[in-house]
């Protein structure tokens, strides 16, 4: 069954019929409205197949009083405004509140959270709120309806329960008939009947534990100095911002009757980022950041509040541990679990050891095995992650079974040889019925985004209050209710405070009692359970295309670290340079990017930029003039520069070039922050001037810097040229000797032919002379 997220958090519904259609009968909706888990603000929604609909009016219910009805409450009041967003004026605009019958069991409450329950059991009279609204015109309204009374003047609430209520607006658009123009449904918890006696608290009240998350998406784009991708976090931690409101609510909860049942769950990367902001930071492309003072104040207040309290370290950078496990990025998965050290350093508090809370509270069996191998002994999971196990209390999981190939289909069948039998893992289950009602609608989450949901979009907790009241006041029986807002909850301060105050009132009234997380983790739970990884969670994972690139970059960083060594005891360690790169890659697999591949790729681009920047610090210095070689085996002198604070061992590789043959590659150790002249052994095969391309690699093959192009000039002869020249010289000598020999021979022959008595006779000249 699909999760409740989309249905639970829909902002509302505006539904009107086309003027060509007859107006619906009064009290009948053409399409049922969605639950109001946003502050009551309506929006357009598709009609039924074959039915035409047009949006004319938007109804914004900005306030509901009271949120939970008690004996001293005599009426219910809603305040807000109506806005004409259609293409014509609207007349005779009227509003009324309607209610349905009380929901009597958990199945009915869950169904009402998914789809609006029938709220037409009691229909008071309409109240005129506007005579006429022109296009784009709005008008505020306030409507108060008695809870008890005869006739059509009240909601006629006579006994405690969870009641569906409906805000219903009718009006008459120009060129149309009277119709329902907007409708919005929510749940109203009634603890006691107005004027009646409050019910007695149960003998065994519900046990409430609150997990309060403080998390954000990754924003660090560079370190030393700190550079952020944007400056939105400064507004979030400032007074009135999202994280400011969550911190204030956490402080409120600690100081009230709920205090001992509250546990802070914090993202180490958020602490790391805010701590860096407090020291001064830059915003990429915008210069100096503006949140230094806000960061210092927020962090100091958090540190003071968390001292001596229950704290959970979330996976560092909100890492999607399931995606890491599927990609077999075990080292990155272990890095995600090391965030507890950051919590200790920044908040000076010891987080709960061996406990982690995965993104969305879901896990597959293979990831469970990897987490257990990394030292995890207990988990916080969503109810949807535990298959076929009734109730809401802690359970134990067997970590000895799992999938060995990291299949992407979300299956949990199979076995693995690398996870042995061991101690069962304890799992605390979040109450899905309560906590899911706090989620924003799926359509409001960023789909290609670079940020968390817009902080100006308000989120109401009304349905969650109804579910919590039902759990504590109408079910009781000592059951566990672990309340956990979404990881990056986006709610205005007023709504956050309402959630805390209402929970405290339930504790103060005896319907609930706070229980610390440590009590839930004490001992081994009796109930055994199996993991169930929801299909929709698998579809939202950081995709394999991203994790594959992360794995390739991770290998580069690992091999680069192997080529580094410390210069001396006073210099930097290789980890000082490499660890920030590992964190950048971890941020690319953050759970903040679940369902947002574009965001994951943007974070990966930041990580790749940092990796490439470190690799570029070791380079070959190109000379300004050609390098002259005096002999055939003269080495090419290269100046190699290392700008890193550690020693680096490199190989110099000369690419194949006609006329030059590189000899065996040699390994050189470059000093930290220094240059070195290294001789590259080559053999020149011909004279001339030609380019030579040189690369620097680590011993393991990671390329450093950019390829260098050198101009080499050689005036020496190669072996072939010398042989040819020698042969030519020998041939010349032989030819010259032959010519001399022939001339001497011819002269001797001529002298033999002259007679002895021919004296005085002049002989003829020889043709050879």
Automatic annotation (TrEMBL):
It comes from the Bacteria. InterPro entries: DUF6049. Keywords: Membrane, Signal, Transmembrane, Transmembrane helix. Residues 1-22 form the signal peptide. Pfam families: DUF6049. Residues 390-422 are annotated as: Disordered. The chain crosses the membrane at residues 716-735. This is DUF6049 family protein. It comes from Saccharothrix xinjiangensis. The lineage of its organism: Bacteria, Bacillati, Actinomycetota, Actinomycetes, Pseudonocardiales.
């Amino acid at each position: 069954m699909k999760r409740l997220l989309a249905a639970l958090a829909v902002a509302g519904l505006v539904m009107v019929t086309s003027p060509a259609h007859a107006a619906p009968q009064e009290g009948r909706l053409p399409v049922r409205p969605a639950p109001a888990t946003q502050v009551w603000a309506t929006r357009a929604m598709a009609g039924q197949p074959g039915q035409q609909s047009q949006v004319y009016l938007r109804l914004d219910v900005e306030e509901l009083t009271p949120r939970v009805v008690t004996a001293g409450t005599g009426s219910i009041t809603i305040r807000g405004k109506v806005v004409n967003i259609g293409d014509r004026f609207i007349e005779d605009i009227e509003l009324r509140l309607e209610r349905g019958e009380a929901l009597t069991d958990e199945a009915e409450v869950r169904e009402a959270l998914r789809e609006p329950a029938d709220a037409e059991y009691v229909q008071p009279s309409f109240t005129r709120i506007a005579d006429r609204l022109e296009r784009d015109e709005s008008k505020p309204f306030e409507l108060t309806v008695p809870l008890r009374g005869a006739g059509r003047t009240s909601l006629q609430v006579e006994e405690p329960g969870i009641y569906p209520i409906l805000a219903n607006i009718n009006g008459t658009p120009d060129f149309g008939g009277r119709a329902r123009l907007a409708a919005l449904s929510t749940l109203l918890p009634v603890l006691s009947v107005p004027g009646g006696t409050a019910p007695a608290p149960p003998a065994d009240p519900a046990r409430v534990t609150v997990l309060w998350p403080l998390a954000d998406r990754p924003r660090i784009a560079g370190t030393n100095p700190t550079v952020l991708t944007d400056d939105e976090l400064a507004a979030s931690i400032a007074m009135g911002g999202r994280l400011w409101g969550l911190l204030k609510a956490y402080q409120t909860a600690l100081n009230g009757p709920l205090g001992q049942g509250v546990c802070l769950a914090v993202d180490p990367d958020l602490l790391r980022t805010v701590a860096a902001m407090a020291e001064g930071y830059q915003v990429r492309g915008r210069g100096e950041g503006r949140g230094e003072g806000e960061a210092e104040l927020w962090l100091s207040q958090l540190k003071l509040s968390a001292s001596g309290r229950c704290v959970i370290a979330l996976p560092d950078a909100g890492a999607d541990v399931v995606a890491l496990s599927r990609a077999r990025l075990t080292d990155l998965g272990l890095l995600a679990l090391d965030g507890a050290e950051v919590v200790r350093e920044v908040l000076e508090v010891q987080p709960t050891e061996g406990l982690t809370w995965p993104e969305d509270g879901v896990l597959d069996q293979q990831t469970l095995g990897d987490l257990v191998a990394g030292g995890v002994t207990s988990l916080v999971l969503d109810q949807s992650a535990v298959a076929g196990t009734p109730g809401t209390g802690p359970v134990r999981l067997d970590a000895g079974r799992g999938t060995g190939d990291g299949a992407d289909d979300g299956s949990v069948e199979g076995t693995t040889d690398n996870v042995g039998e061991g101690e069962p893992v304890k799992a605390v289950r979040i109450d899905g019925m309560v906590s899911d009602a706090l989620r924003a609608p799926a359509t409001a989450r960023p789909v290609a985004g670079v940020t968390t949901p817009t902080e100006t979009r308000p989120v109401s907790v009304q349905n969650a209050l109804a579910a919590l009241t039902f759990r504590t006041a109408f079910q009781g029986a000592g059951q566990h209710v672990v309340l956990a807002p979404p990881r990056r909850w986006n709610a205005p301060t007023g709504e956050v405070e309402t959630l805390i105050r209402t929970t405290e009132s339930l504790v103060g009234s005896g319907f609930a009692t706070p229980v610390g997380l440590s009590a839930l983790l004490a001992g081994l739970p009796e109930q055994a359970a199996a993991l169930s990884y929801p299909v929709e969670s698998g579809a939202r994972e950081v995709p394999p295309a991203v994790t594959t690139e992360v794995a390739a970059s991770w290998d580069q960083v690992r091999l680069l670290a192997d080529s580094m060594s410390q210069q001396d005891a006073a210099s930097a360690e290789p980890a000082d340079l490499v660890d920030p790169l590992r964190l950048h890659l971890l941020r690319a697999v953050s759970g903040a990017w679940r369902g947002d591949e574009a965001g994951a790729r943007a974070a990966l681009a930041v990580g790749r930029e940092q990796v490439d920047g470190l690799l570029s610090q070791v380079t070959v210095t190109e000379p300004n003039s050609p390098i002259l070689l005096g002999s055939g085996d003269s080495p090419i002198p290269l100046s190699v520069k290392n700008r890193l604070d550690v020693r680096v061992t490199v190989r110099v590789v000369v690419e194949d070039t006609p006329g030059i043959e590189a000899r065996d590659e040699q390994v050189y150790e470059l000093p930290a922050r220094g240059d070195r002249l290294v001789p590259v052994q080559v053999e020149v095969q011909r004279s001339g001037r030609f380019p030579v391309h040189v690369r620097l690699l680590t011993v393991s093959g990671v390329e450093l810097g950019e390829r260098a192009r050198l101009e080499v000039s050689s005036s020496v002869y190669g072996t072939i040229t010398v042989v040819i020249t020698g042969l030519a010289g020998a041939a010349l000598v032989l030819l010259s000797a032959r010519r001399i020999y022939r001339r001497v021979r011819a002269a001797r022959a001529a002298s033999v032919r002259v007679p002895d008595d021919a004296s005085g006779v002049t002989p003829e000249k020889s043709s050879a002379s």
